[in-house]
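Incident log, structure service

09:12 report received: a user says their structure output differs between two submissions of the same chain.
09:20 pulled the input from the user's history:
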Amino acid sequence: MSDFLLPVLYLRQFAEQLRIMGKAPGDWLEQCGVDAQQLDDPSFQPGYALFSRLIERAVQLSDDPALGLLVGERLLVNTHGILGFAALQSESLRQTIKLLERYLAVRTTLVSLQHVHDAEAQQEHIQLIPRYPLGAIERSVLEAVMLAIKNILDAATLGNVRLQQVSFPFPTPGYAQLAQAMFNCPVAYAQPWAGFTFASALLDQPLRMADPEAFREAELICQRELRKLGETTSLGARIRRLMLEKHNGFPSLIVTARLFHLTPRTLHRRLLDEGTSFKQLLEEVRHSLAVEHLKAGHLSVEEIAYSLGYNDVANFRRAFKRWEGVPPSEYGVGGG
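09:34 re-ran on a clean worker, output below:
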């Protein structure tokens, strides 16, 4: 099975927003090869390639580059199932953030969250880490997810989270004022990461809607759901996740096989059955991380190459040009 997870109800939000804008959702789905009835099927799970095509086409059809924001505004806390319910029972903002860090994958594997404490500035940064090369849909996806998470934080804290800044890694769009109004705080673009910044003093303030018993019960359900996903997720997805976690030194095929209690031959055969290979997975992870590093702008091309396990920088440059059509030194030049 695919390791990509996104409940179909989120796609229904795109369909509803298109309908509100006077567009025909049926046309959108048909152009992407999806039957309209599939949006009513809770078991429908598009692969990442189809999801990407759906979002890109939805933005084109809407003729509104801010579609991600408009959909994100619709994603209220009750659209996130047990995860949203658990967040509402949190005792503090810290507990809400830990919950989202640990269990966001029960709703989507599209991104993960990382909480970074800045002791010197007394600030908290909640960073979104894309788990797929978002490419043309980066802006729409990040805007929708960021507003969805802000809606969860607002609901859990009764609107008492005063964000100091929202950050995005892409250039300033023409609708920046709309984004600032929706996030109700300054929005900075062309930043090294996507996420929120707020004062550390807010982190442990008691929340008025807290229900510790209900939170524990809801978190147990999240744990079970996450465990169930782990049991049904493909071997390739679990290896890819392992590589992402150890991106400063990728495990070899032999080491990876040992970690999964398999022989190298069995691991190779099972990956072939899933239509992939260890080499292909490593290439995908290197591609994804290379793009993230270049966008962040903290490392030189040489440093990125060595961090991704390339002994020869020229080999990395050739690989990157194969992935993106341009050498790493030209990636993103001119807003690309």
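09:41 both user submissions now match this output. Likely a transient worker issue. Closing.
09:42 reviewer note: The chain has 15 helices and five strands. The longest strand covers residues 111-118.
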